[in-house]
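so the lab meeting is tmrw and i was supposed to have these ready like two days ago... anyway. pasting both below. for each one the top line is the aa sequence and the line under it is the structure tokens. i havent really looked at them closely yet so no promises
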Amino acid sequence: MDAERLKRIEEIYHAALEIPPDEREFFFKEHCGADENLRREVKSMLAFDKASGRFMDTPPASLAAEMLSEREKLNLDIQRILDQATDAWGIKVSNVEIKHVDLDETMIRAIAKQAEAERTRRAKVIHAEGEKQAAAMLVEAAHVLGGDPRAMQLRYLQTLADISSEKTSTIVFPLPLDLIKPLMDVRRE
């Protein structure tokens, strides 16, 4: 297998990690096209990750965050593995500590992308909450204005006053249907 094909497989594999498993078929059709071997190779890599317990279906940013938050557990796991490997030589590993972690550029981009998506999600939730509150206030205002016809007339006059204070040359006068209906009835006769 040539280096270019390996690079292509790796690119598709890393991109596939960002896609939820149930949406990957469309992704494979788009990125692998008719190349069934390419699709099979990427799928087998993903299956290996899942079977080996690497849980690569989790987005890389989440995986990195999880690894960094569980450094103590990783330290103990690495210590146990090293201790088993060096036991035959008579060496006892007494302490392992992860002090610095270098992240690959694609991992940094994935973390930044995930953070941006989270900020966008929060902004949309806040915006939707504001829309919900505004709708509730409009319903309340409609009940108040609908209770007395004079209230609606006062609101109409306030709106005209607001429009007239602006430096515009066009003012639209909305006329209530109650005023127009008698004129329309006369015209029909």
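ok protien two:
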Amino acid sequence: MKGLKTGGRDFPKGKSANPGGLPRTSPQIKALAQYTREILREKLYAVHLLTEDELNARMKDTKTPGSEKAIISILIHAIKYGDQNRFGALLERVLGKVKDEVEHSFQRPTIIIRPNGDKVIMGVEEDGE
């Protein structure tokens, strides 16, 4: 096969190595992007304590708004299939991303200043000593 040689594999010129492209975003996650945090929070709080049967009944009801149906659809999918990605996307949209807090601690070097003003860095000073 003629073409560009990359890592021991030949790819034909003009043909994609990934013809399927990126994975598709689920329609429920696309629907989430259209709503503001306040609307989503209001809708999620309205349905988060319902049972699976009650959620299914709301989905079948023609009077249920589309925004609520999008949230219910994600909740049902999470319950049935353990879909953490959709549920995580919903929670991040409603609550915001959780920030990880990391504590940084550095050992400080000992700096000796000579009478002529030169600085000499000596070893590392342990905390509390």
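from a quick look at the 2nd one: The two ends are 69 Å apart (CA to CA). Residues 25-95 form one domain. will dig more after coffe
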